[in-house]
Amino acid sequence: MLYWDYAAAAPPYEEVVQTLEQVMRKHFANPSSLHRAGEEADKLIKRAREVCAAALDVMPQEIIFTSGATESNNLAVKGAALQYQSRGRHIVTTELEHPSVYESCLQLQKLGWEVTFVAPDPQGVVEPSRIAAAVRPDTVLVSVMHVNNEIGTVQPLREIGQLVKAVNRRTLFHVDGVQGYGKLEAPLKDWQADLYSLSAHKLRGPRGTGILYVREGVTLFPLLTGGSQEQGKRAGTENVPNIVASAKAMRMSGEQREAFSARIRPLKAQLENYIAGIPELVLNSMEDGAPHIVHFSYPGMKGEVLARRLEELGMAVATRSACSSRLAEPSRILLSMGRDTAAALGGIRISLGDSHTQQDVSRLEQALLAAVQSLKIAEGGMK
Asked: Which of 323, 342, 369, 370 is catalytic?
């Protein structure tokens, strides 16, 4: 079975697995404890924070550890809205966002906030001027993802950040960077980002750890209260093994970013060219999108049907983001781009990793053609 779902969860680096095991065995003490074992665990967290900060070119005190990107996004969106509601109760985001941002905004709507959802163009890119036009004097937060987790489009964050700050300097700018870090540059200062979310298991780290950059001077209303961990922004005993292993994964994926992109982009181009030659399929991903995500639709055929047939042929692919893949509904992302319901129901996401080779892609192409042909024959028989 060839695994083509790196965007959902990437297999951890062997070095990360070893680090996780070593820290779990040797440093099990609570890092808030005053004894030596607790202090040693606390030192490991401080060092991990420094590693993550160096990877993003920010200060260690600007790094907060969470349980994953979902919590990081929830804390960024709702924490900012609740903390700064005296400035206003308006948020700007896009129709492309991951459910952890999208649903957070919907929840705030129910609590009285006003949310403007900006639509993308047919290629899945949000025009910066449309974001800026939505910003008002009472806009507390703008949240835009770096790379779409379903179709891989890359948003022009530098232009968006500049325009947002030009319209309202006090509006906070949050970036969901989950699918971008380790594949593309992440110049937070250039973007003028105030908040930035990551997930360790997308970076070949362990599940259950997220990272949130909070620019110095920005305060968030804590969603989890209790102890004073994470500078009072996120209560709860820190997961020391996961945090240390996540920092290692972040460092390694950042160091290998350029090599990863240089090797994977040609494989993506090869696969997209092949898919474009199959009449039944329609490409949704862009050539200049993220290097690791290919997305296409088989209009009239449900995505899960094609995914199951590909699995029978030894290929593990996704129908959309893992958080939504079990929903029998058309893709919200594709609908926002103007695709019809048939195309939005028939989407397939293929996400490449650094272990894939040209031979693997050729095997996938053969399986894809065989799957489409067999489904076409079956569909004709049913008619």
From this structure: 323
